Here is the input.
Amino acid sequence: MLHIGGLLAALILKSPKSHKKEVQKKLQMKTKSKLALFSVFVLCGCRHDEPIPVDYVSENQTNWTKQEIFSFETCPECATNEKFCEFSFFDIYFEGQIGYVCGNYSVHETQARLFKTTDGGLTWSVIYDLYWGCGAGSFEEGMIFITPDHGLVAKICHYVPQIVETFDGGATWEFSENYVDINIDYNITCKVDDTHFIVDQIRSSDGGATWDSFNKISGTTCYDFIDSSYGICATSSGIIAQTFDFGMTWDTIYNNPSDNFYCVKVKDNNTLFAGGTTLIKTDDNGTNWQEVYSTPQIRDIKFVDNNIGFAATHNGGTNITNYYGDILKTTDGGNTWSINYHSDFMSFNEIFIIDEMTQVACGNQTDNYTHATGTYFIKTTTQGN
Here is the structure.
């Protein structure tokens, strides 16, 4: 990872002697400045008065490209060094040129925001700002879009779980009054098909018109379903379980308390994956499991076809200023994985498969090391090649 100090040191070596003192002074000023640490992941309070090298954002990689979602220049709260804006993106969706990304934004207090693009991700606009009418303590980490116009967002407002719904592509939103009043975890969402959805421990079989509760296993962090009956879940305490009745009953097929899972993937009825503190696979519906990749945190697993798949990793280092991540790729059905893309200042939470060749990913970002001008998602139009 190239830190600010390292970058300025490199500039000193390349600068003419007449400029060394000036650059050294900047280095001293930079190293004396300490950034406060926050519980969310994108720090963006610094002014960017110096030119930013092109390869600083691209990180000298062309198989995936970073595209800006939010520019710090347009953030009035980030106009001074005394304030910090923070972003972490948890969910992303595309259909054609229309896309959505949701996450949490903070100026000292956490607030939820939903962004939309209509040009394939070249430009984005805020279409839902939960701060207004909700205030601090709002979170938005899960969304389900049935069509580009019809979507649901699971969120927290004043620490109360809510589901909001749009039927016009985010122009207007209304509260869904059709879910049971229980304490849902806003960041666990699963779209099975166009009519079957799960948000934590409630489910809908009619496109969100009505909801009912089901028997969630304690500590569940993720779901994946192959159809409206069969699916699997995983927990933070190392349990993987399967259901044949859309979540009403569960059977444990893996149990290792030393594992902590963040994502699961049902490739077919026999081939299952679970990722977290490890990436494991079974080819016999859970009778036998093998580790196929070892990494601190696997956050998402998606397949393009039977052979080609991607996984997102989220690595936090020792503190909030050390985020970095990888996009892993497999070409043999998940038996082996290798790093397809690496970032020294982004970690990754979610991958979305737009089509056979085009994939996108979003996640968390630190700004104090990179001096980037905004916060990004990444995109490949070549299947990562």
About this structure: The chain has three helices and 28 strands.
